[in-house]
C-alpha cells in the first residue's frame, strides 16, 4: 500500500515519493511567540504530530522541522505594552508553548529553529534575490518583485491580476508593484535591529521559513505544512522567494489543515470565543481533545463545542472500557483448554490493522481510522460477553493481543496511553463533580433497587430511578445488570 496525500499545489491526492527513498523531510510553520496557544495551534501541532507518527509507523525515517517566529510586529508591540524586551517575551511564550505541547503529549520535532538565530541566512538569501533582479532595496526596506516570478499565485490557484484587483493594499510609494512584499524592514527607533547591507533592520515574516528550510532540508524537500490561512500570502511568498533564488522546485507536496470554529463561528478574540489550550485542558483530559480533533479529517473545518467534546469523551471512554474488560478477564484465572472464538471473528480481528492502514494511507483519514478502532471494540465486547466462565486461556490471549493492537494503532493519534482503570475512574469523578451525589451513594441506591425488584416492590424501584434522575443520573438496565451515566444537559 502507498500513502496518498492531498497536495494543495496540484489540487489532488498523490503518492508519497520521498526525494531520498525511505526518508521524509518535513517543514511546518510554527507559532509566533507572543501569547498563549489556542485550539487552532493545538490542531496544527496535533495534525503534524499524527502525520509524523504515521510515517514512522510505516517505516519511514523522518526529519521534522518546525520553526519559532520570535521577532515580528506583534511581538514588538506586545513587549512594549508589557514593558519588557522582545527576547524575554518571545522566550517566555516559547516556554509556555512547551508546557501546552507536553500536556498534549506531542512529540518534539527533530529541529526547532528560531528566526532570530538565522538572520545571516536570511540576509544571504535576500542578497541572492537582489543579485538576480528579483528583489530591490527601497527607502531602507527590501521588497520582492512579484512581476519577476511568473508563477506567483500557483499555490493559491490565483493569478496576479486577480489578486491585485481583489486586494486591499495601502498606497506605498516605495513599492514598484502593489503586491510586492517586504523581505527586510528598515529599523525604527526603539525596535530590535540587525546589521545588513541595506542598513539596520529585521527580516520580514516570509523570508525566515525560506532561509531556515533551505538550511536544514535543502533547496527542495518533500513536504511543507501549516494551516489553510497560510496558503496566501505566507506560503505563496515562500515559493516565490525560494524558487526565485534557487531556480529549483521548493516543495513537492503542500499539506494544509482546516480552520477551527467555535459554534460555527470563526474563532476570534473580538467575538469572545477565543479558547486557549489550557482553558480546554482545565475541563477535559488531553486525550479527549486529541480524540475530538482526530474525529474530523484534518483538511475539513473543525467546530468546537461542549457537545462535541462530551461525545469525544464518551467515545474514548468506550475504548478504555473495552480494554479494561479484557484486563479483568485476564485476572479471572483463565483455564487451559480449547478456545471458543470462531474463525470469522479471528479473521475480523486480524484484518483490523490492514483496514486501519488503508484508512490512514488515504490522506491520513483519522475519522475513518477511529471507526475501525470502534469496530474492533465491538468484536471484543461481544466476545467478552459470550465467553464461558472461567474463559479459556487461549481466548484471553487472543483478546489481549487484540487490545494491544488497538493501543498500538491508537498511539498514532496519541490516545489510549493511560491505565484504563485510572482513566475511567477519573472520568467518573469528573462527571460527578458538581452533582449532589457521589458514586458510593449511586451504587447503594442501585443495590437497593435490585432488592426492591426481587421483592416485586416496583413502586420503590421506580422511585429510586426517579430520585437518581433528579440528581442527574440515568440508569440503564441490561443483560449484565444496571449501569449508570450522567444525564446530558
UniProtKB/TrEMBL annotation:
Binding-site positions, Zn(2+): 29, 209, 234, 238
Short sequence motif named 'HIGH' region, residue ranges: 31-41
One GO molecular-function entry: ATP binding
UniProt keyword annotations, A-Z: Aminoacyl-tRNA synthetase, ATP-binding, Cytoplasm, Ligase, Metal-binding, Nucleotide-binding, Protein biosynthesis, Zinc
Origin: domain of life: Bacteria
Main location: cytoplasm
EC number: 6.1.1.16
Requisite cofactors: Zn(2+)
InterPro entries: Cys-tRNA-ligase, Cys-tRNA-synt_Ia_DALR, Cys-tRNA/MSH_ligase, Rossmann-like_a/b/a_fold, tRNA-synt_1_cat_dom, tRNAsynth_Ia_anticodon-bd
GO cellular component: cytosol
Ranges for domain Cysteinyl-tRNA synthetase class Ia DALR: 355-424
Binding note for cofactor: Binds 1 zinc ion per subunit.
GO biological process: cysteinyl-tRNA aminoacylation
SUPFAM superfamilies: Anticodon-binding domain of a subclass of class I aminoacyl-tRNA synthetases, Nucleotidylyl transferase
Reactions catalysed: tRNA(Cys) + L-cysteine + ATP = L-cysteinyl-tRNA(Cys) + AMP + diphosphate
Span of the annotated motif 'KMSKS' region: 266-270
Binding, ATP: 269
Compartments where located: Cytoplasm
Subunit structure: Monomer.
Membership in a protein family: Belongs to the class-I aminoacyl-tRNA synthetase family.
Designated name of the protein: Cysteine--tRNA ligase
Natural source organism: Desulfoprunum benzoelyticum
Amino acid at each position: 500500500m502507498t500513502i496518498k496525500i492531498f497536495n494543495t499545489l496540484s489540487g489532488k491526492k498523490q503518492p508519497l515519493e520521498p526525494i531520498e527513498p525511505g526518508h521524509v523531510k518535513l517543514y511546518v510553520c510554527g507559532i509566533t511567540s507572543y501569547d498563549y496557544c489556542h485550539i487552532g495551534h493545538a490542531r496544527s501541532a496535533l495534525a503534524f504530530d499524527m502525520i509524523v507518527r504515521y510515517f514512522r509507523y510505516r517505516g519511514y525515517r523522518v526529519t521534522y522541522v518546525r520553526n519559532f517566529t520570535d521577532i515580528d510586529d506583534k511581538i514588538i508591540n506586545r513587549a512594549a505594552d508589557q514593558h519588557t524586551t522582545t527576547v524575554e517575551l518571545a522566550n517566555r511564550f516559547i516556554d509556555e508553548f512547551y508546557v501546552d505541547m507536553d500536556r498534549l503529549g506531542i512529540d518534539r520535532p527533530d529541529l526547532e529553529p528560531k528566526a532570530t538565530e538565522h538572520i545571516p541566512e536570511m540576509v544571504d538569501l535576500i542578497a541572492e534575490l537582489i543579485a538576480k533582479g528579483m528583489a530591490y532595496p527601497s527607502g531602507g526596506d527590501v521588497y520582492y518583485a512579484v512581476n519577476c516570478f511568473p508563477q506567483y499565485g500557483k499555490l493559491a490557484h490565483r493569478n496576479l491580476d486577480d489578486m491585485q484587483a481583489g486586494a486591499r493594499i495601502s498606497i506605498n510609494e516605495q513599492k514598484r508593484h502593489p503586491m510586492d512584499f517586504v523581505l527586510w524592514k528598515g529599523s525604527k527607533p526603539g525596535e530590535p535591529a540587525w546589521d545588513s547591507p541595506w542598513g539596520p533592520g529585521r527580516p520580514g515574516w516570509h523570508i525566515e521559513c525560506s532561509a531556515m528550510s533551505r538550511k536544514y532540508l535543502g533547496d527542495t524537500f518533500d513536504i511543507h505544512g501549516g494551516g489553510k490561512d497560510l496558503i496566501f500570502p505566507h506560503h505563496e511568498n515562500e515559493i516565490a522567494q525560494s524558487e526565485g533564488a534557487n531556480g529549483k522546485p521548493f516543495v513537492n507536496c503542500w499539506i494544509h489543515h482546516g480552520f477551527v470554529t467555535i459554534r460555527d463561528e470563526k474563532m476570534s478574540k473580538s467575538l469572545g470565543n477565543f479558547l486557549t489550550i489550557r482553558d480546554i485542558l482545565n475541563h477535559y483530559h488531553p486525550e479527549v481533545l486529541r480524540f475530538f480533533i482526530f474525529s474530523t479529517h484534518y483538511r475539513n473545518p473543525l467546530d468546537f463545542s461542549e457537545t462535541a467534546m462530551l461525545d469525544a469523551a464518551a467515545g474514548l471512554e468506550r475504548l478504555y472500557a473495552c480494554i479494561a474488560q479484557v484486563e479483568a478477564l485476564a485476572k479471572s484465572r483463565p483455564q487451559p483448554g480449547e478456545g471458543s472464538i470462531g474463525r470469522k471473528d479471528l479473521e475480523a480481528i486480524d484484518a483490523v490493522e490492514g483496514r486501519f492502514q488503508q484508512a490512514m494511507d488515504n490522506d491520513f483519514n483519522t475519522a475513518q481510522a477511529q471507526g475501525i478502532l470502534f469496530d474492533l471494540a465491538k468484536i471484543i465486547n461481544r466476545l467478552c460477553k459470550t465467553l464461558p466462565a472461567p474463559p479459556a486461556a487461549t481466548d484471553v490471549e487472543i483478546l489481549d493481543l487484540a487490545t494491544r493492537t488497538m493501543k498500538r494503532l491508537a498511539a498514532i493519534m496519541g490516545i489510549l496511553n493511560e491505565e484504563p482503570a485510572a482513566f475511567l475512574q477519573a472520568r467518573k469523578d469528573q462527571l460527578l463533580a458538581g452533582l449532589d451525589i457521589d458514586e458510593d451513594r449511586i451504587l447503594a441506591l442501585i443495590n437497593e433497587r435490585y432488592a426492591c425488584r426481587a421483592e416485586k416492590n416496583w413502586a420503590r424501584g421506580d422511585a429510586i430511578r426517579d430520585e437518581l434522575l433528579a440528581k442527574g443520573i440515568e440508569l440503564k438496565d441490561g443483560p449484565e445488570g444496571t449501569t449508570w451515566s450522567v444525564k446530558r444537559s
